[in-house]
Amino acid sequence: MVDSSQIRNYLNEVSDPEIPVLSVLDLGVIQQIYLDSDQWVIELTPTYSGCPAMQQIESDILLKLNEKGINNARIKHILSPAWTTDWISKEGRKKLLLYGIAPPVDEVDKKTLFADGPRVSCPKCTSENTRMVSLFGSTACKAHYQCRECLEPFDYFKCLK
Amino acid sequence: MNEAALYEYVLRMSDDSLILGQRLGEWCGHGPILEEDIAMTNIALDLVGQAISLYDFAVLLEGKDRDHDQLAYLRYENEYKNLLLVEQPNGDFAMTMLRQFFFDAFRLPLFEFLEKSPVEQLAAIAQKSLKETRYHLKHSSEWVIRLGDGTEESHRRAQAAVDHLWRYTHELFYENQHDVELQENGLVPKLSDVQASWMITVQEVLKEATLAIPTNNWKFEGGREGRHSEHMGYILSELQYMQRAYPNMEW
């Protein structure tokens, strides 16, 4: 009989389909895992309401558990507290950087409509002399940046709080 | 808790999100620049995602064993309760951005208040959507300012959009007996509070954008009661096509 920590370990092998270097645990979307009568419940917090990767992640989780012989699992959505990029693990941040995506940095008061954008370092040359090209990027969680020093265009994982 | 009133309240919000998401999706592949093509479709995705969460809650309140797809795809035009504002055609980029700005500036305070609602599920959806909406408003406000305070041509188009869309903004604050009931029970915010906040944002951004607020208070309403403009049928025929052609199909 498996226990919840073992299931959690299995989830290390499930990655974000759009950022394959991150596991769902690195991403911080997995909350409690527990047995409800005879069913395993995996609590999952969506990143963005419309992120198309979430459905894929759900079926990947169930598929992985199935592969490990666990056929009695289901996903439960948790909307509150809402997911924040603070939940991305330290390890996850390192992986993002190595993959060429600038990890989220703390931004000035997000409640101010026209607060200055964050100072994002280039994942290639580490220069802070970068510019935001667009608030939106290749996926819901990213913005598009460019380095002014080495000219590298790169994705920035937006800070969401 | 008055479930019928709450059902209508949630349904309206879902319909607003869905129809505006559908409209923004029409820009896919047609954006003026690649970055904006991506931005508008990203915002559309957020809106459709919010609509799914809201429809899921609506079907629980309705208790008729329908699912979110049935609400989204299998109702007739007069059963949709979205604002006339969100169904208006995309027009040029200025028209799309102004429509978005008026909507975002309304949704932000609405979600800020709803985050504190005692209706747990609604508060949770608001908490989630609030973060996204804040970002949407930043995006649309920046464009309104850039266009309004830009070239002569962009200013002219932005002002034309304000003048055209203003008549649809009054409906943002439509309320009927159900709303009053929900407000009195403290389940949803007073619309007058949302309106005050909306007005502050609109005045601040339009001023920065050198755009004038129309003095003409001529208004169009009806969406909230299921009476739509001539554009709605065309939106639905596209939106519902797959479900009508292949009943019960799943993605």
Features:
heterodimer; A: 161 residues; alpha/beta; GMP Synthetase, Chain A, domain 3; four-stranded mixed β-sheet; 4 helices; B: 251 residues; 11 helices; 68% helix; 0% strand; globular
Overview of the structural elements:
The complex is a heterodimer of chains A (161) and B (251). Chain A has 161 residues and is α/β, with parallel strands linked by helices. Chain A folds into two domains: 4-83, Fe-S cluster assembly (FSCA) (GMP Synthetase, Chain A, domain 3, 2-Layer Sandwich); 101-157, no CATH class. Chain A has helices at residues 4-11, 24-27, 53-67, 90-99; strands at residues 30-36, 39-44, 73-77, 101-102, 130-134, 142-147, 153-157. In chain A, the strands form two sheets. A four-stranded mixed beta sheet of chain A has the order 4-7-6-5. In chain A, 34% of the residues are buried. Chain B is mainly α and 251 residues long. Chain B has a single domain, classed as Up-down Bundle (Ferritin). Chain B is globular, with a radius of gyration of 18 Å.
For the termini of chain A, the CA-CA separation is 38 Å
Looking at the overall shape, the CATH architecture of the largest domain in chain A is 2-Layer Sandwich
Mean pLDDT of chain A: 91
Order of helices and strands of chain A: HHEEHEHEEEE
Describe the structure concisely:
The complex is a heterodimer of chains A (161) and B (251). With 161 residues, chain A is of the alpha/beta class.
Element layout with pairings:
The complex is a heterodimer of chains A (161) and B (251).
Chain A lengths: L3 H8 L12 H4 L2 E7 L2 E6 L8 H15 L5 E5 L12 H10 L1 E2 L27 E5 L7 E6 L5 E5 L4
Parallel strand pairs in A: 2-3, 4-7
Antiparallel strand pairs in A: 1-2, 5-6, 6-7
Chain B lengths: L2 H23 L8 H29 L5 H6 L10 H4 L5 H22 L5 H29 L3 H18 L7 H8 L6 H18 L23 H8 L1 H5 L6
